[in-house]
């Protein structure tokens, strides 16, 4: 089945890689049962208050911000293609339903696509599965 995409499949794979990196970063923070706990030393805080925790938080969020900006920069057709691929990868549509999935994604577009997609814990897997289902 030939699919006419407004995005290059390599760009979509880049989105998947960034989403996978983001997901791995989130999982690493939970593996020891602590959600990015910051150990504050009460004595040291008064002597040298350098905002180290803020710098750490900023670097952890860089991949998410990058991916969010890449998705937000897509035009309506590109965003609809990305969402349709995710839906196909998630099993909401089959590969033969490409036109229907793309049309539905376009008609349901409200708000930021990045907010919708980054709320999916398995986003990278859905993108990869969608691309595979479409033989891209």
UniProtKB/TrEMBL annotation:
Residues 41-64 are annotated as: Disordered. Residues 41-54 have a biased composition (Basic and acidic residues). It comes from the Bacteria. Residues 55-64 have a biased composition (Acidic residues). InterPro entries: DUF3775 (IPR022254). This is DUF3775 domain-containing protein.
């Amino acid at each position: 089945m030939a699919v006419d995409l407004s995005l290059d499949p390599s760009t979509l794979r880049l989105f998947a890689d960034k989403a996978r990196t983001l997901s791995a970063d989130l999982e690493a923070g939970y593996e020891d049962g602590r959600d990015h706990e910051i150990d504050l030393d009460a004595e040291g805080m008064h002597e040298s208050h350098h905002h180290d925790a803020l710098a750490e938080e900023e670097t952890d969020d860089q991949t998410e911000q990058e991916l969010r900006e890449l998705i937000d920069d897509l035009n309506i057709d590109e965003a609809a293609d990305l969402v349709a691929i995710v839906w196909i990868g998630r099993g909401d549509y089959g590969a033969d339903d490409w036109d229907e999935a793309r049309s539905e994604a376009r008609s349901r577009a409200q708000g930021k696509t990045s907010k919708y997609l980054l709320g999916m814990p398995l986003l990278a897997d859905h993108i990869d599965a969608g691309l595979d289902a479409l033989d891209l």
